[in-house]
Design a protein that fits this description.
Elements (H helix, E strand, L loop, with lengths): L11 E3 H10 L3 E5 L3 E9 L4 E10 L11 E4 L3 E5 L5 E2 L9 H15 L6
Antiparallel strand pairs: 1-5, 2-3, 3-4, 4-5, 4-6, 6-7
């Protein structure tokens, strides 16, 4: 599920700032290449594993591992993991996780703050 109206979409940050902020909030950079990255935070319930994913795409012409590469953030995605591999991006956020996910999104917005120019 794409989570809209979060104030995350469109924020631009240099890679080194983005990486530090999201890692400090408990996210991991799992899926990435030189032009994009997904920062994932795992949630576990009694019956499933879920991830809050925050995607960003390089907009500065530099590659991702360059600390000065500027990434533009996209809307977060809430997804369910299926074993052994696979994601369901159409899943709703379970009621038991609603508050926790909303709080984490607010923390991301606060941590990322103001955009930088590409």
């Amino acid at each position: 599920m794409i989570i809209t109206d979060t104030q995350i979409e469109g924020i631009r940050k240099e890679f080194h700032e983005l990486e530090k902020a999201l890692l400090n909030l408990g996210f991991d950079r799992w899926t990435w290449d030189y032009t994009m990255a997904y920062y994932d935070l795992k949630y576990t319930t009694s019956d499933a594993e879920y991830y809050l994913r925050v995607p960003g795409y390089v907009v500065s012409g530099k590659q991702l591992e360059n600390p000065k590469a500027v990434l533009e953030m996209k809307s977060p995605i809430f997804t369910r993991h299926f074993h052994p591999h696979g994601l369901d991006n159409n899943v709703e956020i379970p009621a038991e996780l609603q508050d926790e996910v909303s709080k984490k999104i607010a923390e991301v917005v606060e941590a990322l703050g103001v955009s930088v120019e590409a």
